[in-house]
Amino acid sequence: MTLTVEQAGLALADPKAYADDRRLHDACALLRRESPVHRVDAPGYDPFWAVTRHADVMEIERAHDLFRNAPRPLLATSELDEINRRRAEQGIGLRTLIHMDDPDHRVIRAIGADWFRPRAMRALEPRVRELAKRYVDRMVDLGGECDFAQEVSVHFPLYVILSLLGLPESDFDRMLTLTQELFGGDDEERRRGQSNEEKLQVIMEFFAYFQELTEARRANPTDDLASAIANARVGGEPLNDFDTASYYVIIATAGHDTTSATIAGGLHALVENPGELDRLRADLSLMPLAVDEMIRWTTPVKEFMRTAVRDYELRGVTIREGDALLLSYPSANRDEEVFADPFRFDVGRDPNKHLAFGFGVHYCLGAALARIEVRAFFEELLPRLRSIELAGEPEGIATTFVGGLKRLPIRYKIS
Questions:
Q1: Cys-Cys crosslink for 210: which of 225, 247, 248, 261, Cβ 3.0 to 4.6 Å?
Q2: CATH number of domain containing 232
Q3: Cβ contacts of residue 329 below 8 Å, gap of 6+?
Q4: What CA dihedral angle connects 131, 161, 228 and 301, to 10 degrees?
Q5: What is the pTM of this model?
Q6: Mean pLDDT per 10-residue interval, the chain, length 415 residues
Q7: At what angle do helices 156-165 and 172-183 cross, to 10 degrees?
Q8: Count of domains forming the chain
């Protein structure tokens, strides 16, 4: 059956489409070609404009004074959007960096910025490499066959980011479950329940946990990121409980789910492209380029939303004040106008102007850490890898926000 432009637009609001690479990229390619700024009226959602070209996504990201994150930073159903708006008005909703605009965004972002600067990353790298070795060793212990996504890639970045926060290892499993429920709200296996109330309960459990953490760090400050957040002051006053908990939530969740998706997706790409695997194993100096190609290829963050504060023309389409736009990062990262042979996985791709970390003032705070983690893992794995193949069918997560593979069965030999 021939895909229509209208069907392609609707795919961007269908969580199952993001678990099916072929379907998603066929839809995005059609939109880029025939309707790069496309109005989507999906059942259950408020209308939005889908922005699918790399140049257009960058244009919107640059104009952060004209296109705001609030009040609709992520794609959600009309019902959930309304619940979130009411909670925000009451001052009890999730308000992370991705929900904020300047001047609040600039001030709040600065609280954690020093923990992700080059000097801090250099200090953290030995711990990252130690954990990378632990998880490659775990692959050996698993006896030559495992579900890489479930048993390896999801745990390594979790340990890194929660160690940076200073959380005890005894709490890591709880954080993993809550994170998977938060980002897996559209996935039948991952979600807490089907109702919006059950989805919101996940956020409230995060808040309860982090409120206890805040109280502990304020009573007894420590040398970790959690303490820096708990004791931060803005305008001479500490952050309120919801802003503090929201900061923890975005660090703990985005700080590991995105990286685990890249590691699993990167390994899958290497298995599916044995020539590129051999090329990288033979020349590990390509690793920085290969890491960015894995990030482009996987694009764990699928979209952010923006709202126009005044009328604006984009590719001849008039965006009205108050209209919402969906920035499609998987589409931008396969744009034929920017990437030569964009559907080829190329470990030596250079330049690689992917937008997986966003662009402009909202550029991902943890981008450097993500690159260090992915590089450390593959620099540990590849010299020890003797053979690898799929042992079953990979399976993606149903989502419209953050996701990747939830299953990657592999068979391998590691020294």
A1: 248
A2: 1.10.630.10
A3: 57, 299, 301, 302, 303, 304, 355, 356, 358
A4: 150
A5: 0.96
A6: 94 97 98 98 97 98 96 93 83 85 95 92 95 98 97 95 90 88 82 77 86 94 94 92 89 88 98 98 98 98 98 98 98 98 98 97 95 98 98 96 96 96
A7: 110
A8: 1
